[in-house]
Specification:
The protein has 212 residues and is an all-beta fold. Strands 5, 6, 9, 11, 12, 13, 15 and 16 form an eight-stranded antiparallel β-sheet that branches. The protein has a four-stranded mixed β-sheet with strand order 1-2-4-3, with no helix packed on it. The N and C termini lie far apart (71 Å). It has two domains: 15-67, no CATH class; 69-211, Jelly Rolls. The chain contains no helices and 16 strands.
């Protein structure tokens, strides 16, 4: 049998049927055709919208778009002894998108240096907040005592300055309905109720961010 040198074409294969939607269904359409996702119960063609790295996916009409969903955990204790609010830790901060609504929840354990030292908490946003933003506190000041209050002010501190659990670990939940006008970073902040007396937020405190 004689040897031969086969010619390998570098030309893209010919379209099946000659058009983008030709052939049997989408499986046999053109080689350069973009195949949309098809829901099996529809079928409805689902277009791809903007989905950022790390986001989940949700369907809006016939488009799949991203939804921010973050669960963040404090790996080490965070302490302060000053009455001026500071960020708890960068890991309890999250970048938010412009003109977007979010539900944010922080679940924190904490102790204070004395029963007469309270933990004060707030939130800080580096961008511009929209109207109707709300930040609320529900938590313990002792094993058998609770407090609840709310504010709409960025950097507004909540919590009783002179009442704390001392060395007994208690839990508080911070809730925020955040409406953004511009993009920025949202952070949990804390301060001591008594200057020079420490308050400590414990390891494994969490931040949950859900885009509405």
């Amino acid at each position: 049998m004689p040897l031969s040198n086969p010619i390998i074409s570098r030309v893209a294969p010919v379209k099946v049927g000659g058009s983008a939607n030709a052939g049997v269904g989408r499986i046999a359409s053109a080689f350069d055709h973009v195949h949309p996702l098809i829901e099996t119960a529809g079928p409805t063609s689902l277009d791809m919208g903007d989905i950022l790295t790390g986001e989940g996916v949700r369907r809006v009409g016939a488009t799949l778009v991203g939804r921010q969903f973050d669960i963040l955990r404090l790996a080490n204790n965070a302490s302060t002894s000053i009455v001026t609010p500071v960020d708890v830790d960068p890991v309890l901060s999250a970048p938010l998108k412009a003109t977007t609504n979010y539900v944010v929840v922080w679940v924190m354990s904490y102790v204070t240096a004395a029963l007469t030292t309270g933990l004060r908490v707030g939130m800080h946003y580096t961008g511009t907040l929209g109207s109707n933003t709300l930040f609320a506190l529900l938590g313990a000041t002792a094993p058998t005592a609770m407090q609840a209050m709310a504010t709409g002010a960025d950097d507004g501190l909540l919590g009783q300055a002179g009442v704390g659990p001392g060395a007994t670990t208690v839990i508080e939940v911070l809730y925020a309905l955040v409406r953004t006008s511009t993009a920025g970073v949202l952070s949990a902040r804390f301060a001591s109720g008594v200057n020079g007396s420490s308050v400590t937020i414990g390891t494994n405190s969490h931040m949950l961010v859900i885009q509405q």
